Amino acid sequence: MAVMTRPLLNRRLAEFGTTIFAEMSALAARTGSINLGQGFPDTDGPEEIREAAVRALRDGRGNQYPPGPGVPELRSAIADHQRQRYGLAYDPDTEVLVTAGATEAIAAALLALVEPGDEVIALEPYYDSYAACVAMAGGTRVPVTLRPHEGRYVLDLDELRAAVTDRTRLILLNTPHNPTGTVLTRAELTAVAELAIERDLLVVTDEVYEHLVFDGTEHLPIASLPGMRERTVTIGSAGKTFSFTGWKVGWITASPGLTAAVRSAKQFLTYVSSGPFQYAIAEALRLPAAYFDGLRADLEAKRDLLSEGLAQAGFAVYRPAGTYFVTTDIRPLGAEDGFAFCRSLPERAGVVAIPNAVFYDDREAGAPFVRFAFCKKTEVLEEAVSRLKRLV
Known about the structure:
The chain is an alpha/beta fold. It is about 40% helix and about 15% strand. It is built from 14 helices and 15 strands. It has a seven-stranded mixed beta sheet with strand order 2-10-9-8-7-3-4, sandwiched between helices. The mean pLDDT is about 95.
């Protein structure tokens, strides 16, 4: 029998094995631990939106293939959302594209816009799919590291500028930023915009946590800055805002040329998805401001509960300005290896977290940092805090 000598997995993806999220979620299930690792809520979103999906199913809306760009009702709702929130006017017919969650939007954008050999700058630590999508597109990722400074993670603009070369194609942003919880400031975004214009770069910006910002922090889409609308692909998602992560409804907004380019790649990925759910999310985006304010206030209280509990347990805590994750430093607990710490934490305290090193090219830079999710019921977080005090 002939033996295959060539590896089955293509070399672009060889460095990507089973995700840390799968490993840690399995560990949580095996040990009966509280899972504060993977970022999904433990309650569903608004009942009226769930019923809207049921109504769409029963009415036969979306049960067959929806239009490739997305159902008109959702594309109009997305365009209205961008205009009302940020003053950004997009044509729902030519400048909005519905995707299978933000992950597909990222993949389609990079597959469409990146040629083999192009460099893609990403803010490190970064969501793990960024690296895989850059690799699938044949690009080269160039990390620019956010570093802790005075209680928040900060973008070094000089380092960003130095990272740009003649091979740089685009900058991949994420704000509010997972996993650090940083929300890029107007000054930081203005500097990124000026660099993109000066060097003729595209920007793909992941803004799925746009509604999860705290302490009066401003979320500013970079597309709203002068000269950026025509060179920016903005990615949004319903999962984080409405707590229906399993529905996988995401979208992009961009100029007609960029939208057409991304659609060209997207049509060969899922083609279409989430038909009945698209109608429900169209209704969700039109919920009154009180819903979004309530969501923000609820998560801000949970952030404070978990952050204070982690500090009492001995962690150094970077209180996030956005998202539903809090990053901690484990060195005050006498540990330096986040992987080892997270793998032992279920036995020591009955809680699961994620080592931030998985989000870094430079694993040493992320080694002492660990991420916890606070998008859970208050009583779950209270129990987790109680358990974590065993570490003191």
